[in-house]
Amino acid sequence: MMKIAKSLKIILCLLFSSCGSSVALWTDGEVPFVRSTPQVIDRMLELARVKPGDVVYDIGSGDGAIIIHAAKKYGVKGVGIEIDQDLVNRARNNAYREKVEHLVEFRAQDAFTVDISPASVVTLYMLPEFNAKLRPIMDRQLKPGTRVVSHDYPVEGWVPDRVETVRGDFVHDHTVLLFEIR
Question: How far apart are CA 91 and CA 68, in angstroms?
Fold first, then answer.
């Protein structure tokens, strides 16, 4: 029953475009691209306690909004991993337009093949099944102290250190989950 409720929530989000995007795009990957709202992006980066010297990786980076915002607000380096080349190109153009191209890098790469060990912060907005597949890679590669922040969906088997709600619209409030690697 819980799985049906989650599926229905996803479908409603996509239908009403209430997950932070005016349009949900199906990409070359397993997960549709739905942009996080500016309020959610801010809260994700605040919860992760992003600071100078951090390296932020965004798995499923879409148009680059999270990485670009982190670079602009905190002056940190960022790496966006996105399987869809068109979204990577859009992210690179957005970084250039926002004048942070010297701080950020966007790679057209499968998230299951990437080395994320340089990350001190990882951001995710992926479906639970994807997060579950990504977990063994994060378990192997991330160092103690790395902060992982997920928008809306947990990482199966991990217990969040903090969970917060960010007010959305009439259909959907957003959940931000912080996990710290120990």
Answer: 8
